[in-house]
Amino acid sequence: MRKISKLIVHCTATPEGRDVTVDEIRQWHLKRGWSDIGYHYVIYRDGTVHQGRPIETPGAHTKGHNQHSIGVCYVGGIGPDGHPRDTRTVEQEEALENLLTDLKEQFPRATIHGHREFSAKACPCFDAHEEYKHIGKEFGRKSPAQSTTVQLLLLQLPLVPVPQFLQSAALMHMRNILF
Ligand SMILES: [Zn+2]
After folding, report:
1. Which one-letter DSSP state was computed for residue 80?
2. How many percent of the chain have pLDDT more than 90?
3. If you measure from the C-alpha of residue 123 to the centroid of ligand 1, how many angstroms do you get, rounded to a whole number?
């Protein structure tokens, strides 16, 4: 598997309410002379997640960043006035969050971005970096139980009964010092 350092979110830039399939997007991208659909995943308006290009293969979605990224695209992105707009359905929002969480679990070091952070475009028409910065904070980091230092410190905790809330306060304090 290639190294993945970024998960990049896109929209199809199609009108709100219009369904678009992986096959249609593939045809658009083949016409541009690309070898396959540029994105690795496409999220339909009903929230179903569809495979595009295999993730082992670099995509064609963000100029200069394809080699080490995965491209995720939701269908939509254009409002009734023809301007860029966050048109995600509730189902798409949920599916995006779940997919990005799964990917972040597989690639804990990858950071999540919107296409517009790398290009003068509106895509994906919302602040993906801000919205998803909470995802995966728990992955790729040792839990206190796995950390030898914390285990040693725990052994030194007083053996007299300590109220539960004080114990957790002490643990929080140690975490803050250690991490
Ligand atoms: Zn894009």
Report:
1. T
2. 75
3. 5
Full-prediction pTM beyond 0.70?
yes
**Cis amide linkage into residue 124, ω under 30° from 0:** yes
pLDDT tens-digit readout, 46-78: 999 999 999 999 999 999 999 999 999 999 999
Helix axes 164-178, 148-155, angle to 10 degrees: 140
Compute the distance from residue 147 Cα to the ligand 1 centre, in Å.
Answer: 40
Q: Which residue is associated with the tokens 């593939």?
A: 26
159: tokens are 């053996």
Query: How many Å apart are CA 154 and CA 158, to the nearest integer?
Result: 9
SS3 171: helix
Catalytic residues: 10, 39, 115, 121, 123
Which tens digits make up the pLDDT trace of 105-128?
999 999 999 999 999 999 999 999
Annotated domain spans of the chain: 6-140, 141-179
CATH fold, domain 6-140, is Lysozyme-like (3.40.80)
